[in-house]
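DM from R.C. (forwarded with permission)

"hey, sorry to bug you on a friday — could you get me a structure for this? deadline for the figure draft is monday and I only need the backbone to look sensible"
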Amino acid sequence: METLDKDLRSIQEVRNLIKKAKEAQAQLATMSQEQIDAIVKAIADAGYQNREKLAKMANEETGFGRWQDKIIKNAFASKQVYDSIKDMKTVGVLKEDKAHKVMEVAVPVGVIAGLIPSTNPTSTVIYKALIALKAGNSIVFSPHPNALKCILETVKIISEAAMQAGCPEGAIAAMTVPTIQGTDQLMKHDDVALILATGGTAMVKAAYSSGTPAIGVGPGNGPAFIEKSANISLAVKRIMDSKTFDNGTICASEQSVVVEACSKDAVIAEFKKQGAYFLSAEEGAQLGKFIMRANGTMNPQIVGRSVEHIAKLANLNIPAGTRVLIAEETRVGRNVPYSREKLAPILAFYTEDSWEAACERCIEILNGEGAGHTMVIHSENEEIVREFALKKPVSRLLVNTPGTLGGIGATTAIAPALTLGCGAVGGSSTSDNISPLNLLNIRRVAYGLREMEDLAEKPAAQTEAASIDLSDKEQLINMIVKRILAEM
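My reply, with the result:
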C-alpha cells in the first residue's frame, strides 16, 4: 500500500477539514441567536471545567510557563471572555435606525483559519473557538507542532461539548498533521474566508501575504514607565506580578522599565525588596548572549522559562528566591537584546532625566520593536498620562495596572481577548482586542430618502428667492436692488 509523505498527508487533511467546516458553517448561518448562544455557552463551560487538566498538559508538553498560571489563562479564556460576549447580538438584525431608514444585518465571514502558538496554546484555542462560533463561523486550527497534543485535546473537549449543544460536526476542527505546507494550504484555500493569526512575526507575515484577509498581531515589547508621582511600591508589585505571570509568555507583558533619575534609587530598592536581581555589567553581557539568536529572533531556550532555568543556562549565580532578572541599559536597537521582546522573566532598566525624556525613550523602544502593541504608565499625574496617550505608538496605553492582565482585558475594561491587534503602525489590520464583532461582516439595508432632482444644485437666484418671504416688502426690494446692481 502506497504511503503519502507527511506534507501531502497534511495538505489533504486540511482540504478535508475545510470541506467539512464549510458544510458546518452553512448550517450555523441558519441558526438563531439562541441556538448560537447555547453552543457558545457549552464551549465556555467545557473549557472552564477542564481548565486545570489542559493547563497541566500545556505546561508538560511545551515546558513553557507555570501550570498554575495557565489555569488562570484557561479560566480567563472561557469564563471572562464568555461573560463579555454572551449578551452580544451577532445574528440577524443588529441595529435598525427607523428615522434614517437604515438597517444593519450580521453576516458571518465563513470558515476561519485559527493559527495557535505554543506559548498560550489551550487558552487561545478556547478563546478563538468562542469568538468564531459566536459570530456564526466555523474554525479550523493550525496547531504549533510543539503544543500539538494539548491543542488537539482542547479541540476535542470543546467540539464534543459544542456538538452536544447542537453544533454541526466539523465546525471546530484542527490539523493532526501540522506542517508548513499544510498550514500554507489552510491559509490560501479559496474556502477560507479569514485568518486569525497569533504567533511569531514570520507566521503573522505569512498570514498577511497569503492573499486571504487576515487579523494578526505583531510582537509586543512594551515599556513600563514609573513616573515620579506613582505609588512606587504598588507599581513595582504590578510589574513583578505581570512579568512573572506564566513566566512572561503573554506578549502584553512588560519588557523594560523606564524611570526618572530622581526616583531611580527608590525604584531599584523596591524591586530588590520584591525579589528582583540586578545583574552586574558582566552578568548582563553574559545573559545577553542567550536572549537573541544570531538571526535576530528570540531564543526559544529562554521563552516561558523560570529564572532558575535561565540562570543555569547562562551560568549565572543568583540569590535563591529571585523572581525577575534586571539589567540596566542605555541603548536601544536590533542588536541590543535587552531592548527587545523577551517572553521570559527578564527586564531592561532605563533611567532618564525627566518625564519628557522618558516619553521619548519609550517611543524609541517601541519603534525599535513592538510598535502598535502595548505600554504601561504608572502615574498619579493625569496631565502626563494624557501626554503619553497622545504620543505613544501603541494600541493600548495601560495606566496603573499589570501589563499582562491589563492588555488582555482581565484587569481593565477593554474587551477580554488573547489576540491583540497592533494597528497599521504595527502591521496589523486592526488595533482592537479581537472580539466576535471583528469576525462578522455587516450588511446595510438603506431606503432611499432623496430623488436625483434633490441632489442637483439650484441656480443661486432661485435659491435666494426661495429663501425670501415674499410678504416682506423690504426684503423683496433689497433683492431686486442687488440684482440690478449686479447686472450694471
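R.C.: lifesaver. The mean pLDDT is 93.
me: no worries. The two ends are 101 Å apart (CA to CA).
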